[in-house]
Design goal:
This protein is of the alpha/beta class. It is built from nine helices and ten strands. It is globular. Keywords: Heme biosynthesis, Lyase, Porphyrin biosynthesis.
């Protein structure tokens, strides 16, 4: 089984720290999400998250330098496209012009010790804004979706990502991604961080504005977990671990501290992330802190 593979959990110094956690929050336990745009020299403020920006890669390098010097150890990249066309297949999710694909070599060269994760999803790149590919009647085509997600994850790994992080909640995507990495001989060089227990939430609003990824019709209730669905959350985590996830996540954070506790209790040997999403600090502070991710200890 893919879940017996361990090398993908320890190929980077930060990953080894995550698997040997201290009893306090350290810089290694925090991950900074970043929104990357097509224009390499652009910096644009996100209206729904004052003080948080979308970055072109050249501006991003300038922004990150002092943060890395002060102890930032890992980042999570989200691609944002405006001029590149969006289509039903999400063609530009892994094209050579994709901002994440373009940024990865520059980041790995500038910050060789920085751990880089990439969000893997179709919603920012599809014309319909959903997280998978659709059938003619507008329903999800799960099999085609997970094959496409595996292609995207592989493209990011080939470009230099240390972690690929599928956030789509399609059934079977962890196994599909793991198999694609294995076939490309990247199985021990790229980790998979699963958004395993990801609940429907209105807290995602500012993020969808930041990533320009809101669905053009309907909602995501048929693939994101219903609020309060404790049993489905446990099953989702079990599913992703069985398929080989190296790390697991609960999202959002504050409304689901009970799920966070139960997940860590049920799966203590897996590093666990909690995602403090955009809408949580946005409703609690006059100057939002933006998106935050941290590992649970």
């Amino acid at each position: 089984m893919q879940s017996t593979s361990l090398h993908s959990s320890l190929h980077h110094s930060v990953l080894r720290e995550w698997n040997s956690p201290a009893q306090h929050i350290s810089p290694a336990a925090l991950m900074l999400p970043l929104f990357i745009v097509e224009d390499d020299n652009k910096k644009e403020e996100i209206s729904s998250m004052p003080g948080v920006y979308r970055w072109g890669v050249n501006k991003l390098l300038e922004y990150l330098k002092p943060l890395v010097e002060r102890g930032l150890r890992s980042v999570l990249l989200f691609g944002v496209v405006s001029s590149l066309p969006k289509d039903d297949f999400g063609t530009n999710a892994d094209s050579a012009a994709n901002p994440v694909v373009k940024a990865l070599p520059a980041l790995t060269k500038a910050f060789p010790e920085l751990l880089i994760a990439c969000d893997v999803c179709l919603c920012p790149y599809t014309s319909h804004g959903h997280c998978g590919l659709l059938n003619a009647d507008g329903t999800l085509d799960n099999d085609r979706s997970i094959a496409r997600l595996a292609e995207i994850a592989l493209a990011y790994a080939l470009a230099g990502a240390h972690i690929v992080a599928p956030s789509d909640m399609m059934d079977g995507r962890i196994g599909s991604i793991k198999e694609a990495l294995r076939k490309a001989k990247l199985g021990s060089k790229a980790s998979v961080l699963s958004y395993a227990a990801k609940f429907c939430s209105s807290f995602y609003g500012p993020f969808r504005d930041a990533a320009k990824s809101a669905p053009s019709f309907g909602d995501r209730k048929c693939y994101q977990l219903p609020p309060g669905s404790r049993g489905l959350a446990k099953r989702a985590v079990e599913r992703d671990i069985a398929e080989g996830a190296d790390f697991i996540m609960v999202k959002p954070g504050l409304p689901y501290l009970d799920i966070l506790y139960e997940t860590k209790t049920n799966f203590p040997s897996y590093p666990l992330f909690v995602y403090q999403v955009s809408g949580e600090p946005s409703r609690k502070a006059s100057r939002p802190l933006g998106e935050q991710v941290q590992t649970a200890l």
